[in-house]
Amino acid sequence: MAERAALEELVRLQGERVRGLKQQKASAEQIEEEVAKLLKLKAQLGPDEGKQKFVLKTPKETLTGKYGEDSKLIYDLKDQGGELLSLRYDLTVPFARYLAMNKLTNIKRYHIAKVYRRDNPAMTRGRYREFYQCDFDIAGQFDPMIPDAECLEIMCEILRSLQIGDFLVKVNDRRILDGMFAICGVPDSKFRTICSSVDKLDKVSWEEVKNEMVGEKGLAPEVADHIGDYVQQHGGISLVEQLLQDPELSQNKQALEGLGDLKLLFEYLTLFGIADKISFDLSLARGLDYYTGVIYEAVLLQTPVQAGEEPLGVGSVAAGGRYDGLVGMFDPKGRKVPCVGLSIGVERIFSIVEQRLEATEEKVRTTETQVLVASAQKKLLEERLKLVSELWNAGIKAELLYKKNPKLLNQLQYCEEAGIPLVAIIGEQELKDGVIKLRSVASREEVDVPREDLVEEIKRRTSQPFCIC
Amino acid sequence: MAERAALEELVRLQGERVRGLKQQKASAEQIEEEVAKLLKLKAQLGPDEGKQKFVLKTPKGTRDYSPRQMAVREKVFDVIISCFKRHGAEVIDTPVFELKETLTGKYGEDSKLIYDLKDQGGELLSLRYDLTVPFARYLAMNKLTNIKRYHIAKVYRRDNPAMTRGRYREFYQCDFDIAGQFDPMIPDAECLEIMCEILRSLQIGDFLVKVNDRRILDGMFAICGVPDSKFRTICSSVDKLDKVSWEEVKNEMVGEKGLAPEVADHIGDYVQQHGGISLVEQLLQDPELSQNKQALEGLGDLKLLFEYLTLFGIADKISFDLSLARGLDYYTGVIYEAVLLQTPVQAGEEPLGVGSVAAGGRYDGLVGMFDPKGRKVPCVGLSIGVERIFSIVEQRLEAELLYKKNPKLLNQLQYCEEAGIPLVAIIGEQELKDGVIKLRSVASREEVDVPREDLVEEIKRRTSQPFCIC
């Protein structure tokens, strides 16, 4: 590590040397010599340093502008002589590219696919380099806040249906944040970095956040305090109305726009019947640069340990917001297509659901097979093959063991392990009588069913709730 | 416009000037001066010039899927997945990239078509080329001895895509495989049954499944006198028989690949044959072929296979075809390929195959290549050519709230017609007073007032009818 730091310092010094020579207009030879030394040093650091990063075929600055400093986490493909390619980092930028490319002015679409980030994955925290994103977006110029409200409704619907516990959706607005920082006296240049400090309020105390802003980021203490007066507030539509009356905030045009839109949003959310799940939270200041209006984040609430305690959020399971400027960055004529959307954090939800299943020891079936075609005696493979294909042709999910003469016990065990509820047993006597013995794996009851009624009987039994076969 | 053209010409000339000076190793001062002039000229052209031109496109050989294409895709996958599930398959997923070393050495000369990831300081990675090698890696890694699984995912090949023929660099593969040591040919027969079931359910026309066996091919080449070293290349010539005539294939083998003409003729006697179980039995009696141990094994297995296929009721769709010699090196036993049949132009003409829509075979040695102890896990499987099926289906084919506070009813009805929405629930002031919603069928234009509390029930009832005769 120390070695690397020393190397990096050498690179820095040599870079300065080269710059100095160029400034002094030293001879081209000398400059070339020192540049060569610089490249050698950089090469020792490893292939990451010094190379131009290309992403898709767009100007470097366009995409750097989307992902900010996360750009270094993009996977590039090797230059094999053709176009320079990279793996997608999210689904939003591809969506904007798709809209611009097809000159679409409106669409309501979802997209579920994997995305790729060269994170340093802390596996235990469920951070992977390849993971699913699950996006829903509405693009188009519409009357204000209706699609935004629907996005929030969808988020609530999904989280409710997944039954992973109680949740809360925090809502804020980029313009309110920016307006608030402006009236508090935050210098423009510090906006983004103060944003990221404020965003930590869901995990750490105000004291710590203030210390970071003042101590590390050089914000004046009184400015920090002023921010503190606002960002520690959260509430419902009444907070929106209160801030609309705030003497300072109401002087700021941006903040007023944001507050006005949030008021309208809350009215729609009330009509949707979900206003009780929504909290206007001034500390919500999510990372991505491309949000332009409302932003929201859903968190699961941990059950309070003691009655009377407020529930703690334990991490985001969904998030989103409005981003009106992104498509315009792709369109050659800069045509804007306003967008609002949400992303469900499915990987987190997968782990929660998996944890729950383990805890309840509920058996999860990995197949949907309804009946195993079996035989108790030897030389009945032919009959099993005939019967199983009859069942497949009737649309029944059926299997057979790939053995010419399997033992009945093994076949029954296979059913128990796989959770197959029924066994259709072929026997010589039964064949003569024109029946199949249908056995319920759970109850172990057997009944002889005429061959021509078998399909019907299996369908009847498997269509019952919880397949009490 | 002329002004711009003149400016562009000046930029071009100045650029050449700078290049010239650099070549002549003129002084840094002079170069800097001319570069500054160049930049000034470029700036005059306006903000478009001088900036990287960016083209809005997907990478070569790839495409976006529009909502309409996704609808087709979803329907096709539905049919396929239902079939896999009907046969008791589990599903797995693997990462889109594998360690480069995992993929090395598995694809023969196709290896040059593999996409590598840039070396960014970590593991060397490549995008998966198919789903079979990841499957083998998964089995070996998890020490599994048997599994029946399907896997539907995109794979990546740096082909030179002839777009019109539907060859992409990123495309879906749809695999089903049975791994494990079982009694012979039962899983192999089930794979063929699944292929037939799927192609039937997709209703894309009549099809034929050609079947052959690696051991029969190898045995046949041996008795015909093909040198070992030419086996693979003669294989690929023979494989073309489905597209070109025997004359052309023979010319290629003799003229380009240096095969003795009598050897080629001998091959020709065999590879132009195709038929059912009777051909298998005939070849089992063939004086030469029956002397070859490999060929005998292959023929014996095919005989058993045909018996099982007859019990499954699909033998009429299967053709034992000695010219089937599919590319991949890892097949070890039975191989098969399904082709769609074009309707004959004139009665009496034999239907022509127009391209493969599914294929597969047995590959017993692959997992052993991954297992540290070389433990073998026999596998047999199939792959559905969904991209071809998508284009075929695409070719055949062609309740909501509008985000306007006061939309025109006509616009809303038009929206329904365009999107194929069958019902409209119309809210009106009088109806609100009466506690009803006007439910309108888009197709029939009939409207009926439904009490608000019955609306959900009524919509569910109507939409559950077949073909939604709403």
TrEMBL record, chain A:
Positions annotated to bind L-histidine: D90, L91, T92, R117, Q133, D137, R286, Y290, Y291
A GO biological-process term: histidyl-tRNA aminoacylation
GO MF annotation terms: ATP binding; histidine-tRNA ligase activity
Principal location class: cytoplasm
Keyword terms of this UniProt record: Acetylation, Aminoacyl-tRNA synthetase, ATP-binding, Cytoplasm, Ligase, Nucleotide-binding, Phosphoprotein, Protein biosynthesis
Catalytic activity: tRNA(His) + L-histidine + ATP = L-histidyl-tRNA(His) + AMP + diphosphate + H(+)
Cellular component aspect of the GO annotation: cytoplasm
Cell compartments where the protein resides: Cytoplasm
UniProt domain WHEP-TRS: residue ranges: 3-59
Top-level EC class: ligase
Domain Aminoacyl-transfer RNA synthetases class-II family profile: 110-353
InterPro entries given in the database record: aa-tRNA-synth_II, aa-tRNA-synth_II/BPL/LPL, Anticodon-bd, Anticodon-bd_dom_sf, HisRS-like_core, HisRS/HisZ, HisRS_anticodon, uS15_NS1_RNA-bd_sf
Pfam families reported for this sequence: HGTP_anticodon, tRNA-synt_His, WHEP-TRS
Gene3D superfamilies: Anticodon-binding domain (3.40.50.800), Bira Bifunctional Protein, Domain 2 (3.30.930.10)
Regions annotated as coiled coil: none
Its EC number(s): 6.1.1.21
Family affiliation: Belongs to the class-II aminoacyl-tRNA synthetase family.
General function of this protein: Catalyzes the ATP-dependent ligation of histidine to the 3'-end of its cognate tRNA, via the formation of an aminoacyl-adenylate intermediate (His-AMP). Plays a role in axon guidance.
Subunit structure: Homodimer.
Protein name: Histidine--tRNA ligase, cytoplasmic
From TrEMBL, chain B:
GO CC, alphabetical: cytoplasm
Residues annotated as binding L-histidine: D130, L131, T132, R157, Q173, D177, R326, Y330, Y331
Record Pfam families: HGTP_anticodon (PF03129), tRNA-synt_His (PF13393), WHEP-TRS (PF00458)
Protein name as annotated: Histidine--tRNA ligase, cytoplasmic
EC number: 6.1.1.21
UniProt xrefs under InterPro entries: aa-tRNA-synth_II, aa-tRNA-synth_II/BPL/LPL, Anticodon-bd, HisRS-like_core, HisRS/HisZ, uS15_NS1_RNA-bd_sf, WHEP-TRS_dom
WHEP-TRS domain ranges (all copies): 3-59
Keywords: Acetylation, Aminoacyl-tRNA synthetase, ATP-binding, Cytoplasm, Ligase, Nucleotide-binding, Phosphoprotein, Protein biosynthesis
Gene name, Swiss-Prot/TrEMBL: HARS1
Biological role: Catalyzes the ATP-dependent ligation of histidine to the 3'-end of its cognate tRNA, via the formation of an aminoacyl-adenylate intermediate (His-AMP). Plays a role in axon guidance.
Subunit structure of this chain's protein: Homodimer.
